[in-house]
Design goal:
The structure is a single chain. By secondary structure, this protein is of the alpha+beta class. Helices cover 34% and strands 27% of the residues. The protein has eleven helices and 18 strands. Strand 3 and strand 4 form a beta hairpin. The protein is globular and about 60 Å long.
């Protein structure tokens, strides 16, 4: 059975029409489908924090498939039975690995895959195995749009719950849900089984994002400047960073820049990246320095191919890297926070 929350955004009528009327899902499986100007007093963000009611409903085990959409319907969150969370970075990778379950791609073929830089490397592993071109872009859908216009891109995604294909030049939350339903219908497996099979085949990129919202903009800017100075010191390369019994070695540190293969434009200062010799990545980005303050985002991505470890909890697996990131950036001292606002 399906259970979906439109979070009182614009997707509600489409969910009712397509999923309930066309596909035959019961009407009571679609909730919060009346668009409201204030989104019912809630924050229409499809993540584990702001869609907590959907998460709790899925944890009862009564439903096999859960989905939530944001206010304008372009972003989505997928949940399996018992609240099994599909990380958006994994979602686009699974769609890529099962792309021919969708008749559209059987007709058009696949031109390329793309992900935003902070998104985990799970999609890269599918691209490598299938020998399909992969593009790593800055955050922002316009970079995907350029690639689509040039007929270089068929499927793309970002860790911030946006997934899309070249059927339109935008991310499309309902399309992502229908893509997942196509995969489930073809494979006749649960969401959890599909993910676990995927990790067995490709390995698992453990991924998390910590958002520190509405922090003091001056303090956040100062933190980023000091971090950049530390990372760009020549002696930083080769340094060992330790937490508990885990030791990581710095391979590269940079501020991500992107040369657009379509129009040749260069986008600089797209995020501080700390690349470690085991392939793990620590990324810091600062966004929004308006009246409500800034948001500091910390991303951690670490690949694991050991079959005994791929089902572990991401927060436990990534704890050493999170602690190292917080320590070298002095994140809590500089922002005055004791922890993030949202963890994905």
């Amino acid at each position: 059975t399906l259970f979906r929350s439109a979070m009182h955004g614009v997707m509600g009528p489409y969910v009712r029409k397509i999923v309930c009327e066309e596909l035959g899902a019961p009407a009571n499986s679609a909730v919060n489908c009346t668009p409201l100007e204030d989104f019912g007093g809630h924050h229409p963000d499809p993540n584990l924090t702001y869609a907590a009611d959907l998460v709790e409903t899925m944890k009862t085990g009564e439903h096999d498939f859960g989905a939530a959409f944001d206010g304008d319907g372009d972003r989505n969150m997928i949940l399996g039975k018992n609240g099994f969370f599909v990380n958006p970075s994994d979602s686009v990778a699974v769609i890529a690995a099962n792309i021919f379950c969708m008749p559209y791609f059987q007709q058009t073929g696949v031109r390329g895959f793309a992900r935003s830089m902070p998104t985990s490397g799970a999609l890269d592993r599918v691209a490598k195995a299938t020998k399909i071109a992969l593009y790593e872009t800055p955050t922002g859908w316009k970079f995907f749009g350029n690639l689509m216009d040039a007929n270089r891109l068929s499927l793309c995604g970002e860790e911030s719950f946006g997934t899309g294909s070249d059927h339109i030049r935008e991310k499309d939350g309902l399309w992502a849900v229908l893509a997942w339903l196509s995969i489930i219908a073809t494979r006749k497996q649960s969401i959890e089984e599909i993910l676990k099979d995927h990790w067995q085949k490709y390995g698992r990129n453990f991924f998390t994002r910590y958002d520190y919202e509405e922090v003091d903009a001056d303090a956040a800017n100062q933190m980023m400047k000091e971090l950049e100075t530390l990372m760009f010191d020549r002696s930083f390369i080769g340094q060992q960073l330790a937490y508990g019994d885990k030791v990581y070695t710095v391979e590269k540190a940079d501020n991500f820049e992107y040369s657009d293969p379509v129009d040749g434009s260069i986008s600089r200062n797209q995020g501080l990246r700390l690349l470690l010799t085991d392939g793990s990545r620590i990324i810091f980005r600062l966004s929004g320095t308006g009246s409500a303050g800034a948001t500091v985002r910390l991303y951690i991505d670490s690949f694991e191919k050991d079959a005994k470890k791929i089902y572990e909890d991401p927060q436990e697996m990534l704890a050493p890297l999170v602690n190292i990131a917080q320590k070298i950036s002095k994140l809590h001292e500089r922002t005055g926070r004791t922890g993030p606002t949202v963890i994905t």
